[in-house]
Specification:
- It is built from 7 helices and 4 strands.
- It is mainly alpha-helical and 136 residues long.
- A two-stranded parallel sheet has the order 1-2.
- It is elongated.
- The two termini are 20 Å apart.
């Protein structure tokens, strides 16, 4: 069908790795699964919830393929991830959380009869939204 496809192969070892309490067990299993995904044709490896900089670096070095990291508390800074070779990051529900926080903050201001300038000077205009929705 000539549709480009990007396979971001995910493993939940760091989330659901029951019985993998020995030091390095989750890392070893993640590398094993990543290698299998790579051999099967995956474009990227996504070890969900990995946080340790050393583990991330080892996975990048061992697999020699793009690695995706989800941005959660405890993950190294973006410049560190870039330096160790991470090529893709995901926000999960991060954008939604930021949007909800902004809506909550303006709702609190409105309850206090404040916030008009936050609304009227917002750089995200109606025209911007229309263009965003209508982009092809």
């Amino acid at each position: 069908m000539n549709v480009p496809l990007f396979i971001n192969a995910r493993t939940d070892v760091y989330v659901r790795g029951k019985g993998m309490d020995a030091p390095g067990a989750k890392l070893d299993e993640a590398i094993k699964r990543g290698a299998a995904y790579k051999a099967a044709g995956a474009d990227c490896f996504f070890p969900l919830a990995i946080q340790d900089e050393g583990d991330i670096k080892t996975i990048v070095e061992q697999l020699q393929m793009p690695v995706n990291i989800i941005l959660i508390p405890g993950v190294p800074e973006l410049n560190v991830l870039h330096t160790i070779g991470v090529r893709r990051v995901s926000l999960g529900p991060g954008f939604l959380k930021i949007a909800i926080k902004a809506m909550k903050n303006i709702a609190v201001k409105l309850q206090q009869r404040e916030g008009l300038s936050d609304i009227t000077t917002n750089e995200i205009t109606s025209d911007y939204l229309i263009n965003l929705v209508n982009k092809k």
